[in-house]
């Protein structure tokens, strides 16, 4: 019993240490490619990834990242569910932002 409790605490701590750990980055990548790239490329040129890497980017924290994804979701009427937003956040964090909490 004690070992099970310790393992549960360890794994819950690891999940908290990784933002968007409940998201699926592979699914998020497909969603970004389908729904985000075209608009970002129009605004920033190239493949659109400069929006994530530019010097004066808007997103500077994991909370800011999920807030921006939700903002785009709402403004563009994509009607994503929370798990879909987390998938996109997981992909963007893994690929560009590298926030650790």
Please characterize this protein's 3D structure.
This protein has one domain. Helix 2 packs across helix 6. The chain has 101 residues and is mainly α. It contains six helices and no strands. It starts with a helix and ends with a helix. About 8% of the residues have low confidence. The protein is globular and about 55 Å long. The longest helix has 16 residues.
Write a short abstract of this structure.
This protein has 101 residues and is an all-alpha fold. Helix content is 68%, strand content 0%. Helix 2 crosses helix 6 and helix 5 crosses helix 6 (82-97).
Number of helices: 6
Strand content: under 5%
Count the beta strands: 0
Question: Average pLDDT value?
Answer: 87
Task: Give unreliable regions as ranges.
Answer: 9-16
Outline type: globular
| Share of helical residues | 55-70%
Distance between the termini: 30 Å
Element string (H = helix, E = strand): HHHHHH
Q: Structural class, please?
A: mainly alpha
- Count of individual domains: 1
How many whole angstroms does the radius of gyration measure? 16 Å
Biggest sheet statistics: none
């Amino acid at each position: 019993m004690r070992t099970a409790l310790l393992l549960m605490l360890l794994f819950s701590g690891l999940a908290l240490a990784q933002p968007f750990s409940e998201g699926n980055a592979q699914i998020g990548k497909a969603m970004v490619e389908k729904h985000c790239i075209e608009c970002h490329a129009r605004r920033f040129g190239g493949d659109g990834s400069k929006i994530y890497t530019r010097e004066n980017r808007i997103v500077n924290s994991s909370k800011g990242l999920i807030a921006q994804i939700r903002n785009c979701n709402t403004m563009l009427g994509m009607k994503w569910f929370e798990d879909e937003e987390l998938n996109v956040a997981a992909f963007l964090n893994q690929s560009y932002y590298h926030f650790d909490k």
